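User: Hi! I have a protein structure encoded as tokens and I'd like to know what sequence might fold into it. I'm fairly new to this, so please keep things simple.
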């Protein structure tokens, strides 16, 4: 078993270890809560368990107090498995749209980090490429237009913006994803760090991108992870 929550079941093939992922979801929920990226019952986390099977945080539950046995398992249509003890988050369709359009994605995280949400409420994305880490690991972060939470309008609003690793949700919060749960969570941390730097630079009037030639050089040397 490796640190990514998988166990080898055959030559070259890895299947998720569900119990390990349940525990990791709870750990990441606590991290989001401790870092003030969620308040009250805000936010939700999902992980791909198989082609049409997903682990999801329950509705109405603080991310700081999740329990492994009280996570929902749903299919690609969002239907809970028989015997599931809880209802999944009402924002599950937003996550499922990411999985449907990005087969390479293994986990999705939704949160309301303070600085990223400030930009989302202001109606601005984070297009600037100021740091090497941002260029390689995240890229420009677009703003999806406002849609009423927990409606089909939300997945529709994010669909045009799923080529990167993150999107801001206008007057709502942020959504990140990645090949595994830790990658999706770290994308949220990186997004919030970038949003804070962007906010402070705007305050002092010193917003600066890396030169275009350096951005191209970074992508050529390191590639991108999104």
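Assistant: Happy to help. Inverse folding works backwards from shape to sequence: for each of the 226 positions I chose a residue that suits the local structure. Here it is:
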């Amino acid at each position: 078993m490796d640190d990514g929550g998988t166990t080898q079941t055959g030559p070259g093939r890895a299947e998720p270890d569900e119990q390990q992922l349940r525990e990791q979801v709870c750990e990441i929920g606590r991290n989001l809560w401790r870092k003030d990226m969620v308040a009250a019952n805000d936010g939700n986390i999902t992980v791909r368990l198989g082609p049409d099977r997903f682990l999801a945080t329950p509705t109405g539950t603080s991310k700081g107090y999740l329990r492994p046995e009280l996570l929902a398992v749903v299919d690609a249509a969002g239907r809970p498995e028989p015997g599931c003890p809880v209802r999944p988050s009402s924002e599950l369709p937003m996550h499922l749209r990411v999985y449907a359009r990005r087969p390479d994605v293994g986990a999705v995280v939704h949160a309301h980090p303070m600085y990223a949400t400030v930009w989302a409420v202001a109606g601005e994305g984070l297009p600037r490429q100021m740091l090497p880490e941002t260029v390689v690991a995240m890229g420009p972060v677009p703003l999806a237009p406002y849609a009423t939470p927990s409606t089909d309008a939300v997945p529709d609003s994010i669909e045009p913006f799923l080529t990167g690793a993150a999107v801001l949700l206008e007057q709502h919060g942020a959504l990140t994803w990645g090949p595994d749960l830790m990658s999706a969570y770290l994308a949220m941390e990186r997004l919030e760090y970038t949003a804070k730097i962007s906010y402070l630079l705007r305050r002092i009037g010193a917003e600066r991108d890396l030169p275009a030639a350096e951005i191209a050089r970074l992508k050529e040397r390191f590639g991108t992870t999104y």
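A useful reference point when you look it over: Residues 1-13 have pLDDT under 50 and may be disordered. Feel free to ask if any position seems puzzling.
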